[in-house]
Specification:
The chain is mostly helical and 131 residues long. Helices cover 61% and strands 0% of the residues. This is TerB family tellurite resistance protein.
Length: 131
């Protein structure tokens, strides 16, 4: 399941036709910390257009983590494009959230992965948006 999540992050990173170094580093950090070999992640980064699978089977905790990482990825390069917002809203919808959850979370999730947000508080906010 982690490879599916990485695939979504890679597609988001590539949505502006350029995977920035910071984006690639975040993807690798998430993947490696979840047991995915760096070589596999590099291969996925070379082929970013793999279809997104069914996200509805994730647990609520997995859905939130996925949503958190998607918002973090959107912000990590310091620029947020309309195409990235639309992509994140689409992923939120596939995860069972209302699109407004992206605006709610993006104001509270930092682009720097070393700065951690209060995930429990964010999860409670996000749950209000579950459809």
């Amino acid at each position: 399941m982690i490879k599916e999540q990485l695939n979504v992050l890679i597609q988001l990173a590539a949505s502006d036709n350029n995977v920035a170094d910071k984006e690639a580093k975040l993807i690798k950090m998430i993947g490696v910390s979840n047991g995915v070999p760096a070589e596999d992640i590099d291969e996925m980064l070379k082929n970013p257009r793999k279809p997104i699978g069914d996200l509805s089977t994730l647990t609520d905790d997995q859905k939130f983590e996925h949503l958190y990482h998607v918002v973090q990825m959107m912000k990590i390069d310091g620029q947020v494009f309309k195409s990235e917002i639309v992509f994140c809203e689409d992923i939120a919808s596939r995860l069972g959230y209302k699109k407004g959850v992206i605006a709610e979370l993006s104001s509270k999730i930092y682009s720097d992965p070393s700065i951690t947000s209060d995930r429990d508080a964010l999860k409670k906010k996000a749950q209000k948006y579950l459809a």
